Every structure is written in structure tokens, then in C-alpha cells.
Automatic annotation (TrEMBL):
Residues at which Mg(2+) 1 binds: 69, 87, 200
Family matches, as Pfam families: Inositol_P
Cofactor(s) essential for the protein: Mg(2+)
A single GO BP: sulfate assimilation
Sequence positions that bind Mg(2+) 2: 90
GO MF entries: 3'(2'),5'-bisphosphate nucleotidase activity; metal ion binding
Domain of life: Bacteria
UniProt entry keywords in alphabetical sequence: Magnesium, Metal-binding
Higher taxonomy: Bacteria, Pseudomonadati, Pseudomonadota, Alphaproteobacteria, Sphingomonadales
Signal sequence coordinates: none
Protein name: MFS transporter
Length: 256
């Protein structure tokens, strides 16, 4: 008799990756159903993937806290050491346009630190998942610096820093896709100052840190999660050799 699979016995890393992968498949199926107008597709995908992720986490990790972009916030998470933070669709516009630069984020903060994460890129090469617990080799840096920025509203700080570094701008969609682009060797720096929330960066930051990258606020302070105010407006993820220079340029810009 074959053993009965019990998801409660999965490691946190395996669970995060499994949930991100399945949510990505669900989102692709929702989009390919042809049932939703472009305007309605993003909401339908967000809500469907969110229901799956939140129900699954409450089923298999009932003692942990949970924060999701698509769920009403709950004060109970503030008393938890372990808190899952998820973004069912990061890059809703790109998802609706069937581009590759959207993501699913499933991560865990432990005592506020970005400890574990899985970022699924369902539109990339038939589905790619990057994990904090199973790292891959980051490709060597090219001679020409590349900075990934929003394809629709590049942050002023990022553009100014790119000019100072003579870096090539690489427009891209979701925060998760941008962060993973540094790991995948498609960019060297991801600088964002235009406003974000905890679910936008928690899982990507955990994955980036595990791969040896620098991840911080744009003033150099640590990224802290599971805070009462979930607004976390800025982020720097980059190869470590560029961190000091980028942070110095941002500080100089802030002084005018």
C-alpha cells in the first residue's frame, strides 16, 4: 500500500515552492479560459489564486500568521513569530497581457526578517521557480551595468542613479520579476522608491538574500516585515559589489 501524502510534513521551503507553482498554474488556466474581459481578468485571477493560497496555508500551517494582498488584514498576525506573506499575482497588468514578467510570491517572515521565499514566474520558460532554500548560480556580471525599472512608471531615484552609473535601463513588470532578473543575470540592480507593500518584496527579498545579493531599504536600513503598517515604500536589491555606491548616490540625491 502506498503512503498517503501529508502536506503537513513538507518542509516550509517545499511548501512555499509547491504553493507558488500551483497558484501559477491556476492563474494560467484562469487566463486561458477565455471567460474574462481584459478588465476583469486581473481581479478574477487575483481572487482565485488568493483563495487557493490562503485556504492551503490555513490548512497545513494553522498555527502560523498570514498576510496577503487580497485578504483583509488581521491583527492576530502581529503576535506570531512565523508569518506567511503572499502576493497571489504580482504584476496584474502583465498577467492580463500574457507577458512573462509577472510572478507569484509565497514567503515567510520570522520575527520580522525575510527568512524564506519562493517566487514563481509562470510565464517564463514554461514556468520557473526561484527559492531561498535551493539556490542557483548567479551568472557573472557583464561589463555594462543594467538597472531594472518599472516599464510604466520608472522611479525618479532609479533613473537618476542609472544616469550617474551610466547603467542601461531594463523595463520590466512586477517587483518579483525585477528582483529575480538580478539572480537570473538579466540585470545587476533593482532600485525602487515609488511605493510598495510588504507582499511586493518579502518573498523576493528572501530569495535574493539567499542567493548572496544585497537587499535593504534605499537608506540602507534592514527590510522588516509583519509590521502593523504594511506599507514598505522602497527597496534595493543588487549585486553586493554595487550596494555601497548605489546607497551613496541615493543619499546624495535625497540631500538635493
Amino acid at each position: 500500500m502506498s503512503e498517503i501524502f501529508d502536506p503537513r510534513t513538507m518542509s516550509d521551503g517545499d511548501l512555499a515552492a509547491h504553493l507558488a507553482e500551483i497558484a501559477g498554474r491556476i492563474l494560467v488556466e484562469v487566463r486561458s479560459s477565455g471567460l474574462f474581459s481584459p478588465k476583469a481578468l486581473g481581479k478574477a485571477g487575483d481572487q482565485t489564486a488568493n483563495q487557493f493560497l490562503c485556504h492551503a496555508l490555513r490548512e497545513v500551517r494553522p498555527d502560523d500568521g498570514l498576510l496577503s494582498e487580497e485578504e483583509k488584514d488581521n491583527a492576530a498576525r502581529l503576535d506570531k513569530s512565523r508569518v506567511w506573506i503572499v502576493d497571489p499575482v504580482d504584476g496584474t497588468r502583465e498577467y492580463g497581457e500574457a507577458r512573462s514578467d509577472w510572478a507569484v510570491h509565497v514567503g515567510m517572515a520570522v520575527d520580522g526578517a525575510p527568512t524564506l521565499g519562493a517566487v514563481a514566474l509562470p510565464g517564463l520558460d514554461g514556468g520557473t521557480i526561484l527559492r531561498s532554500d535551493q539556490t542557483v548560480a548567479v551568472p557573472p556580471a557583464p561589463q555594462k551595468l543594467r538597472m531594472v525599472v518599472s516599464r510604466t512608471r520608472p522611479a525618479a531615484e532609479a533613473v537618476a542613479v542609472a544616469d550617474a552609473l551610466d547603467a542601461e535601463l531594463v523595463p520590466m513588470g512586477s517587483a518579483g520579476a525585477k528582483a529575480m532578473a538580478v539572480i537570473l543575470g538579466q540585470a545587476d540592480i533593482y532600485l525602487h522608491g515609488g511605493g510598495q507593500y510588504e507582499w511586493d518584496s518579502m518573498a523576493p527579498a528572501a530569495v535574493a538574500i539567499a542567493h548572496g545579493l544585497h537587499a535593504s531599504r534605499i537608506d540602507g536600513s534592514p527590510l522588516l516585515y509583519n509590521q502593523r503598517d504594511v506599507y514598505l515604500p522602497d527597496l534595493l536589491i543588487c549585486r553586493k559589489e554595487h550596494a555601497d555606491r548605489v546607497l551613496g548616490l541615493v543619499a546624495a540625491l535625497s540631500k538635493g
